[in-house]
């Protein structure tokens, strides 16, 4: 017999009369609740490991990682996907975030977008989704039709599916092949899943892509040697990385970085010239 689905994300807050609290009390209580998130994520480490390994395997064989979600969950997926190219120097189409309602929904609430059952699969098909890829559905509630139906179609087409949700035994978790259920308890503001649930989802997303990129060889030691040099701060950081790796002065390291375009290539070519 399957366990009961309880929508923890909709349960009443452990706190009441919030409008009567002063600023210090509000901040303290929010912080108390936030401290529960990392512990909830820790409980899901075995599940996170299994999904991460699947992502690594698929990407090593020419696949891509897709995130699909609605509202806050969709935005978090897009945020994580968009940070992979500058951080790890990968192509912008290696990790792709899709949100119900399209790009307009990144900044604006799109009415009923999450309720469109067929649109998620249609949005994935625009990217020529295939069995090489992995699709991770993100939904705090675990009940978003846009996401669930997209994963159902992926399963039917032999595409690996994962999920990140904050309710136990949700429809989304039961649909995904590799579900992650980070149950963080009721929100400080009842039902506001942009708070603890959103934090939990972001933590898991960080773990998925960071670990995957390390496994794909995009980090050397503990350094982002393939990062895109998109501003002076990163140029300075990259220059100092080269200095640490090879005993040369700052100006010489900076010239090498600008010539070869990345920390990795600069170090490789400078070592070759020694």
Q: What does this 3D model show about the protein?
A:
With 274 residues, the protein is of the alpha/beta class. The chain has 2 domains: 208 residues, Rossmann fold (3-Layer(aba) Sandwich), CATH 3.40.50; 42 residues. 50% of the residues lie in helices and 9% in strands. It has a 5-stranded parallel sheet with strand order 2-1-3-4-5, with helices on both faces. Strand 3, helix 6 and strand 4 form a beta-alpha-beta unit. The longest helix has 20 residues. The radius of gyration is 21 Å and the shape is globular.
CATH architecture of the largest domain: 3-Layer(aba) Sandwich
Given this structure, which CATH class of the largest domain is correct?
Alpha Beta
Total individual domains: 2
Helix count equals: 11
Query: Within the largest sheet, what's the order of strands?
Result: 2-1-3-4-5
CATH fold assignment of the largest domain: Rossmann fold
End-to-end span in angstroms? 67 Å
The radius of gyration is: 21 Å
Low-confidence stretches: none
User: Strand-residue fraction?
Assistant: 5-15%
Class by SSE composition: alpha/beta
Q: What's the helical proportion of residues?
A: 40-55%
